[in-house]
Amino acid sequence: MSVQLVIFDCDGVLIDSELIACSADAEALTAIRYPITAAEIVRRFAGIPSDAVYQTIEAEMGRPLPQDFDENAKQTVYEKYRTELHPIDGAAEVLSSITLPKCIASSSAPAKLTLGLVE
User: What is the DSSP string of 39-65?
Assistant: First the structure.
């Protein structure tokens, strides 16, 4: 069997987005009296869907997150992406050196993904 297509994940593979998103989440959660660091978010919640993360946090806080929490957190991530997002060192060179067809797969929201891929 020969390789016919190379599929890349985006977040943390092509763009250095994970710590930015975790930092934004930590700021948003701390602002609503759930103090947490970006490092702790990575350790506890990496790879877990937001809905499950929010359920865990609500259970630990003993109250629901504010209704606008998710939207506000997303806006903070988008703002940070616009000013702090960078490609992973060497990613562009690797992509340009591959002659096979290639594509990017991601579970990120399309708007967030677009911010990460536009340069």
Answer: HHHHHHHTT--HHHHHHHHHHHHTSPP
Q: What is the CA radius of gyration of the chain?
A: 17
- Which residues does residue 11 pair with via DSSP β-bridges, in sequence order? 15
The pTM for the full model equals: 0.75
Distance CA 25, CA 77 (A): 8
What's the pLDDT tens digit per position in 21-66? 899 999 999 999 999 999 999 999 988 888 999 999 999 999 999 9
Q: Which helix (H) or strand (E) holds 91?
A: helix 91-97
Q: One-letter amino acid identity for 81?
A: Y
82: Cβ–Cβ under 8 A, 6 or more apart, which residues?
115
